[in-house]
Amino acid sequence: MNNNNFIQGYCRIKDNTVLKNGELLFSEDSGTLNEFLKLAYQHFQTDYSKFFKMDRLSKLGFLCADVLLNNLKENNLFQENTAIVLANKSASLDTDRKYQKSIEDLDNYFPSPAVFVYTLPNICMGEISIRHKLYSENSFFIFDAFNADYLWEYTNSLLQNKKADSVLCGWVDVDEDSYEAFLYVVSANGNLNHTKEEITRLYFTNE
Prior knowledge:
Layout: E1 6-14, E2 17-20, E3 23-27, H1 33-43, H2 56-74, E4 82-88, H3 93-104, H4 121-132, E5 138-142, H5 148-160, E6 166-175, E7 178-187, E8 192-193, H6 196-205
Parallel strand pairs: 4-5, 4-6
Antiparallel strand pairs: 1-2, 1-7, 1-8, 2-3, 6-7
């Protein structure tokens, strides 16, 4: 498969920190994930009212993508024909648990459709697409662990077959107190070679 593609940039949110291309942009020592995401939203002046209706998975993916794509826009590298290829291991389990708690106590029974209004992986991708006016393909996969090989192959296929000019790829996962977002953008231009080895290196260096 042709591999004349490059990683334009990457962003990671983990352990109450936000890093872009290895540079620390924001850090908060304590607090829950919701508290951290709210503070990060304020720090980056995100200004997107629907953010607060989203579940934690969607908030995490949306914020990570926003930091990364806004940086590309500032450097005139952003392309509207950008596909989205994301993955995680927990799907929407974090929100599923919340809904289960709302129905398991018959004496305090309060199931609400509002729990699912802004949830599930497709909402995460949908809000990123709306925010940045992305009209290309999008897919969300479930794996047992971060799968650099599959992301590499799928992304290269989209670019080689002219389905997109660039691809926002990566991992967005929330499971109770554990969370992580690692996103990167691949296109025909960039500073880092788009290889399985480079994707794996970036993911595991925690930069």
